[in-house]
Design goal:
The protein has about 240 residues and is an alpha+beta fold. The chain is built from eight helices and seven strands. Helix 6 runs antiparallel to helix 7. Pfam families: DUF2459.
Length: about 240
């Protein structure tokens, strides 16, 4: 049987815990709303049989890279000057220190989520061959319009940091020996801006209606892209019209 003093103390603890619980609940609601609240679809023209450029989204379930034809970029683009004989580019983005590693250091991975964390872009040329470094279990063809292609290039351009001559800043050799590089980029890698969220935003820039905020892993990002019905340029149906 509690004495009056103990009862008062117990009641005091209960009352003090209520604001904490309310705060935690509010934070959870705000995070859930941020991640999953509906957002407008990108205002970008959809691809048609006569206006389609094909990207490929590669995934090993955890990390994603996107492949784009080199011809999608202007002739004097920094990436085309970096790899002038490239048929395509394989592009990824992530935390600099963790990207350099083999991905097995959990402590380094957790540290990457705490800003500020310097970011880099991993660029390899001739994507189908270069994608082998990922050990991909997914290769999704995604058709975008010419407008979407231009906006995708602009998204990449906003991320790249260039030197005084307008060239990418090389910060390390890439994971594909002899045909890739790590390049300096803007933006900090953190919990709400991981590699797959960056990639989801790249897809949205190109006109693909995915939820980039919730794309922490590559697998769900691939599934989203499939659900919205984006597919290869060859599979885009021709309009039949009416006679």
């Amino acid at each position: 049987m509690s004495v009056p003093g103990e009862a008062v103390e117990q009641r005091r603890r209960q009352l003090s815990q209520r604001p904490v619980a309310a705060t935690v609940s509010l934070i959870a609601v705000v995070i859930f709303a941020y991640l999953f609240a509906p957002i407008p679809a990108p205002n970008v023209a959809a691809p048609t049989p006569g206006d389609c450029v094909e990207l490929h989204l590669y995934s090993n379930g955890y990390h994603s890279d996107i492949a784009a034809p080199a011809s999608m970029f202007p002739e004097n683009h920094p990436l085309r000057r970096l790899y002038p004989r490239a048929d395509s580019f394989l592009i990824g983005w992530g935390d600099e220190a963790f990207y350099y590693s083999d991905g097995s250091d959990l402590g380094m991975g957790v540290d990457a989520l705490i800003p500020p964390s310097a970011s880099v872009m991993h660029v390899a040329y001739n994507a189908p061959e270069a994608s082998a470094y990922l050990g991909p279990n997914d290769d999704l063809a995604i058709g975008i319009s010419g407008e979407g292609a231009a906006r995708f290039v602009a998204y990449v351009d906003r991320a790249l940091v260039l030197d005084g001559a307008g060239d990418p800043i090389h910060v390390g050799d890439g994971k594909v020996v002899g045909q890739s590089a790590f390049l300096r980029t803007r933006g900090s890698f953190h919990l709400l801006n991981v590699c797959n969220q960056w990639m989801g935003r790249a897809l949205r820039a190109a006109g693909v209606d995915v939820n980039a905020r919730a794309a922490w892993l590559a697998g769900p990002l691939i599934r989203q892209a499939r659900i919205v019905g984006r597919t290869s340029c060859e599979a885009i149906p021709h309009s039949t019209g009416s006679g």
